[in-house]
Amino acid sequence: MEKTASRQAIRLFLQRYGLLLSYGLVVLVLSLLSQRFLGISNQINILRQASINAIVSIGMTLVILTGGIDLSVGSILALSAVISAALMKNGLAVPWAVLTAFAIGAGLGLINGLMITRGRIPPFIATLGMLTVARGLALMYTQGQPVTGLPPSFRYIGAGTLGSLPMPIVVAAATFIAGIILLRQTRFGEYIYAIGDNVQAARLAGVPTERVVNLVYAFSGFCAALAGLVLIARLDSAQPVIGQGYEFNAIAAVVVGGTSFSGGEGGLPGTLLGALLIETLDNGLNLLNVSALWEQVVKGVVIALALLLYKAIGR
Amino acid sequence: MKPRLKFEHIYKAFPGVQAVRDFSLEAQSAEILALVGENGAGKSTLMNILSGAILADSGRIFLDGEEVMIDSPRRALELGITMIHQELALIPQMSVGQNIFLGREPRLSTLRAMVDWKELYRLAQQELDRLGLKISARDLVQDLTIAQRQMVEIAKALSYKARLIVLDEPTSALSEREIETLFDLMRSLRQHGVTLIFISHRLEEVFAVADRIAVMRDGQLIGVKAANEISRDEVVEMMVGRELKEFFPKANVQRGALVLSVRGLKRGKNLRGINLDLYQGEIVGVAGLVGSGRSELARAIFGADRVEAGKISLNGKEIQLHKPEDAIRLGIGFVPEDRKAQGLFLGQSVRSNIVISLLNRISQLGFIRFKLADELVEKMIRQLNIKTPSVQQRVRNLSGGNQQKVVIARWMSLNPKVLILDEPTRGVDVAAKAEIHALISKLAGQGVSILMISSELLEILGVSDRILVMREGNITAEFSRKEATQEAIMRAATGQVDNQRLSLQSQTV
Ligand SMILES: Nc1ncnc2c1ncn2[C@@H]1O[C@H](COP(=O)(O)OP(=O)(O)OP(=O)(O)O)[C@@H](O)[C@H]1O
Ligand SMILES: [Mg+2]
Fold first, then answer.
1. pTM of the shown model
2. Of B58, B173, B243, B425, which sits most exposed with the smallest number of CB within 10 A?
3. Is the model's pLDDT at B254 over the cut of 80?
């Protein structure tokens, strides 16, 4: 029966470092298969590509920690991006345009929250509604046309660099750090975990459950808007169809990162690693000239494997 | 004859805790063996090993002389071992009958793939009736009271026709009458040769029903004695390893000004116009059968449920309570009856669970001052003697009694003006119970007004300055500490009211 003790030790180890281990494994395999993979420029490339999804995933992590889900992030991203792009084209100063995008993102997120807390609509349905509505508004507003030729000062956040680091990475890192502080150092973060763990007990313990949930969805909307700005700044073009399917990538990063769908368990470090892992796979398959269609399949399989692993190690 | 059950040198460790060490014990057929010990002594762990929920690190288990390897709950059932778990494990959204036959539903003889619902509900009802329960097999579990759920859990375990039945604190949610039914049933099972292992922190019960008593401390077997050869005090001494000055050291407190006053509180058939006054430094006990409206009263005063009518005043001022937050802000605290569903965040740390309600006070600009939090939590852990390897331990990993203490700690650290306690010592061991009672007394001494609901008459009688009895949504009697007796309370709770005692109620209606 000695075996059971060591089995337990292995399980504990996997719970803590399993994700890091899989990441290391993927990196190892890819670096053996392709010489270009480990190069510093490719690695920075991966980070830059991952940063948009990472920013969206930060908001998504908070949402999933409360036991909810936000399907509307891609649409919110698009709507806030096209509106602020149009405003900039029409001569509005960049800071104001950026703030408008934030307000739209957070505002739509807040509406998600209110539908859930006041309207008692399940998060899945409420944010699915927002997904269609916001996308529809984005298409209507632009009449399907992209907005291009954004001011250079704005383009800096997407195309510029700080030192030798591309700005998207800097923005993602800053958001990530802010998110970690929010979750781990503040009352608000503590409330998020409590609500995800047991809403009823949270209410009886005096946690302002509705307010917290509203704010969490608002934060998710804010993150989507931020990601949208970085994205259009990099592309120098705001199309009403951007961000489609981003909710899937964000949710994937969060769950691969070990945050439990039932809420109250997990956190941002996992999400970051999850986003990196997914992007690294994408990148590696690209380098190996695997078709884009296969990429989808591989991504799906990785997520399924991660969930199976969590189940097996009792997370 | 071979013993029914034999443990040989069982060991089990969790990170930071040796939960069971070198445990050997035998149980005979047709025997009721009680297993007692302090919170965290390792009782549930040992029984979980027996029922296949967890694996031992080492050691052997024999059943009727044969060594068995119990590596899953299913295997345990095949071997004829069933267990009633300390924490309820029914599925709330399913019916009682579905729960009882979960995973072994009777099938239609014509079409084996289909469940024979009629037969399922007939068999389930039979099990329920056997226990004298007024529950329909078609009721949803979520509509049952916690006591009824416990009885369903018992009915489910009995329906397996096992040769060994483990009951882990089955009585902590039950009232006297249901406990008697359960004991009668246990005795009749014993007559049929079944072995029962019974865990309880209420030693009166242990002595009432058990043939032998095994005492555990720190994961070890301290001793096992025939129930009629050992006294209650000796058992307690074996449990805690020292002599314990027990039982409700109620300090005499001068009753102060009127603090909380409730008038005409109504909510459906659970609260039919309740009037209640609570003075400073006073402990008011609320007795009554399960379902008499006691818990609903507590929840209403705490703002957890909407009421249809009624006024609540605090220090002479009428207050409006829309949600628990409002009550907490005004200095009202509440320990709910069901710690798992209403009290705890099982996946979070001991620290998070204790400080959650007072984060407002220990944070600055929204940032938690962790040093302050840790000091506070360490103090509560010491004061309530909570057994945990660290403040970071997840509450899920604590023993049942220690979980209860965590909830109590949360509300005590809040320094409320009014503290409402619904079954505060459920599942708590004798020593800790005495500590909690002492703490309640001390709080009252500091001027806190306390409303304590309990199904344990001895607890009510020992702690309260004044006792209210509820029945069917009304307060049917009021006793001072001096006048109260167990018989009088039971009479009022069951319906033979003594009219003169209705002083407060008749005055104000
Ligand atoms: N899954 C777990 N992980 C870590 N520690 C655990 C786990 N389960 C139990 N423990 C620890 O093992 C010890 C024994 O716990 P156990 O639940 O067996 O106590 P108990 O005797 O049943 O107590 P109670 O009377 O409070 O129910 C405790 O210190 C508890 O914290
Ligand atoms: Mg236990």
1. 0.86
2. B243
3. no
